[in-house]
Amino acid sequence: MVGLTHLLAKAWLLPLVYGASQSVIYSTSAARPQFTIPASAETGAQLIANIDDPQAVNAQSVCPGYKASNVQRSSRGFTADLNLAGEPCNAYGTDVDSLTLTVEYQDSDRLNIQILPTYIDASNASWYLLSESIVPRPQASLNASVSQSDFQVSWSNEPSFNFKVIRKATGDVLFDTEGSVLVYEDQFIEFVTALPEEYNLYGLGEHITQLRLLRDATLTMWASDDGTPIDGNIYGQHPFYLDTRYFKANEKNGTYTPVKSSEANASQEYVSYSHGVFLRNSHGLEVLLRSQNLTWRTLGGGIDLTFYSGPTQADVTKQYQLSTVGLPTMQAYHTLGFHQCRWGYTNWSELADVVSTFEKFEIPLEYIWSDIDYMLEYRNFENDPNRFSYSEGEEFLSQLHDSGRHYVPIVDAAIYIPDPNNASDAYETYSRGAAEDIFLKNPDGSLYIGAVWPGYTVFPDWHHPKAVDYWTNELVIWSKKVAFDGIWCDMNEVSSFCIGSCGSGNLSLNPVSGTTLPGAPGNIIFDYPEAFNITNATEAASASAGAASQAAATATTTSTSVSYLSRTEPTPGVRNVEYPPYVINNVQDGHDLSAHAVTPNATHADGVQEYDVHSLFGHQELNATYQALLEVWSGQRRPFIIGRSTFAGSGKWAGHWGGDNYSKWWSMYFSISQALSFSLFGIPMFGSDSCGFTGNTDEELCNRWMQLSAFFPFYRNHNELSTIPQEPYRWASVIDATKSAMKIRYAILPYFYTLFDLAHTTGSIVLRALAWEFPNDPTLAAIDTQFLVGPSIMVIPVLEPLVDTVKGVFPGVGHGEVWYDWYTQTAVDAKPGVNTTISAPLGHIPVYVRGGSILPMQEPALTTRDARKTPWALLAALGSNETAAGQVYIDDGQSIYPSATLHVDFTASRSRVQASARGTWKERNPLANVTVLGVDAQPSAVTLNGQEVSSESVSYNSTSQVLFVGGLQNLTRGGAWAENWVLEW
C-alpha cells in the first residue's frame, strides 16, 4: 500500500489519508478499490487576470506602434510594410519588428485586412497562423475592385500607423484605430477601434449574456468546460460581431444623423445600417467593450479581419456564411421533433419505459438519448454488457425504429488508456489508435495522458493525417452493434479533470474514477429554482437544511492545496505557453489555461501546440464525426450531430445545445440570447436543456420552459444525474402545457423545415431578434425577452415565476404591421413601442402570427413520420394591405442530395389565395383547409380553380374576421400541390 499511496500522491489524486473527502467506488471489473480523482487535482495556479490587475502594464502607453512605408497599390487594394516606430516594449512577449499589411477588397460587400509578421520561419513552431485546411480564408471574387466596394480604407502614420474603414454610402466610420497604437508580439496582439456612443453590438461568443452586448464587458474566448457562468467564456469561440447603427436621414442633403436607441421613438421613421466583423484567429482572446471603443487582445497568431457591409443584419449573416464560414448543414426532418434525455437512464428497459410513458400520455416523442450511462466504465464505443447489452439493444432499437423514432448516444472526446500490465483491461479502441500513433503528445514526444470520466485518458490529435480515418473506423465498428441515428459530441473543449499529463507513469492505477459523481456523498444536489421556497416551502426548507449540512461537512473534511504563481515576465525570443505573460480572464480556476482542460503545451503531430489551437478541438472533432457518419450511412442520410464545443464554421456539420445550464429562471431567460447569437454564427440547430440540466427543476419552471423550447429548432429535455426526474409527463400541468405548445410546433414543422432549407441554401437565419427583422426601429435594439421564428411567428414567453401575465411589444404596428393572436386568430390591438400586458396563465405561451404571412401546416402527431402523412392546411394572415406570401420546401427529409424536391410559393391578395409549385417531388397528401385571417366581409361563394366549395365547408366569423374553408380533400385528391391552384371568394 505504501507504493500505491506514493503513486496517488504523485498524481495529485487524493490526500494521503483516506477520508470522507475521497469517494471509494468498486468497479465491476476490478478486484481493488477504484479511486476518484478529487477536484484538487485540477486546481490551477492562481493567476490574476490582467484586466483585474492594477499593476498590469498598459501596452497602449508603453509600446511605440508602427510606421507604414512602401505602399503598393492595385485595383483590389494595397500592401504596405509596417516597422516598429520606436524601441520594442516587449510588454507581454517579443515585439515583431517587421509586419506586412494587406488590404484586399474581396467583393463589393466584403473587405479583408491582414497584418502578419513579414518573416515567419516555417520550422519555428513558436508562431502559428490558423491553417486554411482547418478554417478556410474567404477568397476574392474575380470582379472585386476598390471602385466597386461598399468600403473605403484610409490610413495614416500620425502619430503612428492607424487605419479607418468607412462605409461609402453614408460616410460612417465603421472601424477606426486612430488614437491607439498597434501592439504586435509573439504572445500578445492588441488593437483598438473606436465605437459610437451607445453602440449596438451582437455576437462575440460563446457567452451567457444579454443579446445586445453590455458596454462595459470583457468577453473572453477560450473553449472551456464550465457550466454556464454569466458573462464567462464557455464551450465555443466565435470572434464575430454584428454592429447596427441607427440614423435619421435628411432627404434634402443626403446626410445621416446618428440616433441613440435610448432616445428613439417607435412611432418615428429611422434607417439603420449593419455591418459585421470577423477576426480569423484561434488563440485565446479577450474583447474589451468600453464606453466608446472595442479592444481586441489575442495571445498569438495574426490579425486577419474580414468586414461585411450588410447593410441589413440578414445581409451581414448571409455574407459571413456564404463567403467565410460556410452554410449550415441541412437537418433531417425528424430532428425537428422532440428529444428526451437524462443522465441516469440506467438500461434499455428504462429507455423503453420512458418511450411507452410518452405514448401513454400522448406526448410526441421523436428521439430518445443516452448519456454516459450506457458506456462500459465510461469508455467510448463500448456498451456496458450488463445494462446496455448489444442483443437487448438490437431488439429495443428495432422496435423504436419501427415506431418511427430514433436514438442518439453520447460520445466523449477522450479515449481511455488501459493499464498495460493488466491483460483484462484491454481496450481495442485505444489499441487501434495507438497503432496509428494518433493521440496528442507531451513536448518530449511521450503520450499526453489526462483524465476524464473513465480515468486516465488520451486525446485524438486531429492534426494527425490518420485521425479522421481512425475516428470513422471506430464509429463504423460500433454502428454495427448499435443502430444509432446521430451522435452527441460532448467534453470536446477539450476537457480534462487534472492538470497536465497526470496519468504519465500511473497507468497501473487505471481504471480510476474521473470525478465524484452527482448524488455521491458530499455531492448531493439540493438546489431548486428561484421562488421554490414560496411555491414549495416545506421541501425548500428541507433542501436548504441539507445543503447547509453538506456544506459544513465538506468545509471541515476537504483540504485543497493551492499554488500561487507570480506573473510571468516575458523573455525575448521565448514563448511560455503554459503561463503566458498576458493572463486572459479565463473562467476556470485561477484563470489558468490548463485548468479543466488539456494543457497548452500538449503537442500535435505537426508540431503545433494546443496553446495555438485549443478552441479548435471540438470544431475538428465535429468535422471528423460528420465524415464518419457519411461512412456509417454510406452517404445516404444526413448526419445528425449535436456538439458542445464549436468554432466559426462548425454549423457546416453540426448543431449545438446550450450546455450544462441551470434549472433556474435566469438560465431560461439567457437561453433566448444564446439561441439568437448562434443564429448569427451560422448554427441554427440550437436548443437548451429544457427545464434545466444542473439542479432540480420544479413544476412551474418546467411548465414554462417546455413551452418556450417548443419554438427553438432543437427541442430537448435533459437533466443531471441524481436530480429529480423532469420528463414532461411528471406533472399534470406540464403534460397539458407541453402538449399545447407541441401542437403548435408540430403543426408548423413544414414551416420550420422550410426555414432550414433557406438557411442551408442562402444563409438566412431561423430564429430572429426583433431588431434584426425590423431594422428601422431603434427601440427594439436590446429586446431579448421575445423572438421570432423566421419572419412570421413571434413568441413572447413568461420568464419569471409567480406571474400570470407577460409584457411584450408588437413591432411595426405604427407602420402598417398587423399581428394576429395564434389562439383566437384575431388582430392584436397594440400601440407602437408600448409594452403591452398579455394574459399568460400557467400553461399558456403567447404566440402571434405576422400579417402578410402564409404558413404551411400539417396535423400534429406523436412522431414526425406520422405527421408527414397527414393532410395539409394553410394559414394566411393578411397584412394591412390585404396581401400575404409564404412558401414551403418538401423532400424526403433525410437524403443529402434528394432525388426529388418541391418548392411551393403562396400568395394572397384581397380575395384570393394561390399556390404555385415547381419541382419533381410527388406530394400525395391532399389539402384539407385554408384559413384566412383579416377578411373584412363574408364571402358569397368560395371556389378552388373555379370549382365551388360546398357552403357547409365554409365558415366566416365577422367578429374575428376569420374565413375558414374546409372540405378541400375531395378537390385535391392527387395531392395538395399536384397542380397550381387559386382559391377565390
TrEMBL record:
The protein's Enzyme Commission number: 3.2.1.20
Domain named Glycoside hydrolase family 31 TIM barrel: residues: 328-755
GO biological process: carbohydrate metabolic process
Reaction catalysis annotation: Hydrolysis of terminal, non-reducing (1->4)-linked alpha-D-glucose residues with release of alpha-D-glucose
Example GO molecular function: carbohydrate binding
Domain of life: Eukaryota
The keyword Signal is assigned to this record: yes
Signal sequence region: 1-19
Keyword Signal attached: yes
Pfam families reported in the protein's UniProt record: Gal_mutarotas_2, Glyco_hydro_31_2nd, Glyco_hydro_31_3rd
Domain (Glycoside hydrolase family 31 N-terminal) ranges: 143-245
Keywords: Glycoprotein, Glycosidase, Hydrolase, Signal
Record InterPro entries: Gal_mutarotase_sf_dom, GH, Glyco_hydro_31_AS, Glyco_hydro_31_C, Glyco_hydro_31_N_dom, Glyco_hydro_31_TIM, Glyco_hydro_b
Annotated Glycosyl hydrolase family 31 C-terminal domain residues: 763-855
Function comment: Hydrolyzes malto-oligosaccharides, but has a low activity toward soluble starch.
Similarity field: Belongs to the glycosyl hydrolase 31 family.
Stated name of the protein: Alpha-glucosidase
Organism per entry: Aspergillus ellipticus CBS 707.79
Highest classification ranks of the organism: Eukaryota, Fungi, Dikarya, Ascomycota, Pezizomycotina
